Amino acid sequence: MTSILFVCLGNICRSPLAEGICRARLEAAGLAGRVRVDSAGTGDWHVGKPPDPRSVAVARAHGIDLTPLRARQVSRRDFTRFEHILAMDASNLSDLRALSPDKGGARLVRFLDRDVPDPYFGGPDGFEQVFAMLSDGVDVLLADLIERI
Predict the structure, then answer these.
(1) I need a surface site. Which of 72, 73, 104, 113 has the fewest CB within 10 A?
(2) pLDDT, tens digit (0-9, with 9 covering 90-100), for 64-74
(3) Are strands 84-87 and 107-110 parallel, antiparallel or unpaired?
(4) CA 62, CA 5: separation in Å to the nearest integer?
């Protein structure tokens, strides 16, 4: 089974949005059972907490429910559990590389060809912009994955 882990700093804004978008697109394509999707953060500040209410609101506005999600921190085990670990920005990618065991099997890359900005300290418009970036990125990712599964 193909597996994807989206990673940001605290796992309450960007990565749960990416996870929710990806799950919704997989469900719509009838592929929900063929791809395992999760999200995590490099930091531990929000472990066990739900996504930021602004992430929940923007997702809900697009028909996606993030309320079941809870933040977690990346573990060393994730590097063997997931085929693709996708960082939201260069800083997250650097942190993931530092955490990665020498023989991790995951493909570890930045999710987009540019950083996905952290909307945490901004207003709702930032969350909508991040949603649009993530939505476009998920479409590209899934088009590539669907060809291989």
Answers:
(1) 113
(2) 999 999 999 99
(3) parallel
(4) 22
- Where is 108: in which H helix or E strand? strand 107-110
Q: Whose structure tokens read 């809870």?
A: 70
**Identified catalytic residue from 78, 89, 95, 118:** 118
Q: Which two tokens stand for residue 13?
A: 């804004």
**Residues 13, 14, 22, 78: which is the catalytic one?**
14
Q: Is 148 a catalytic residue?
A: no
Determine phi and psi for 26, rounding to 5 degrees: -65, -40
H-helix segments, the chain: 14-28, 53-61, 78-81, 90-99, 124-148
pTM exceeds cut of 0.85: yes
CB 15 within 8 A of CB 85: no
For 69, the token pair is: 């999600």
Q: Using CA of residue 90, residue 71, residue 86, residue 115, what is the dihedral sign?
A: negative
Select which of 8, 22, 25, 89 is catalytic: 8
Q: Is 125 an active-site residue?
A: no
pLDDT digits (tens, 9 = 90+) for 113-124: 999 999 999 988
Q: Are the C-beta atoms of 37 and 72 separated by less than 8 Å?
A: no
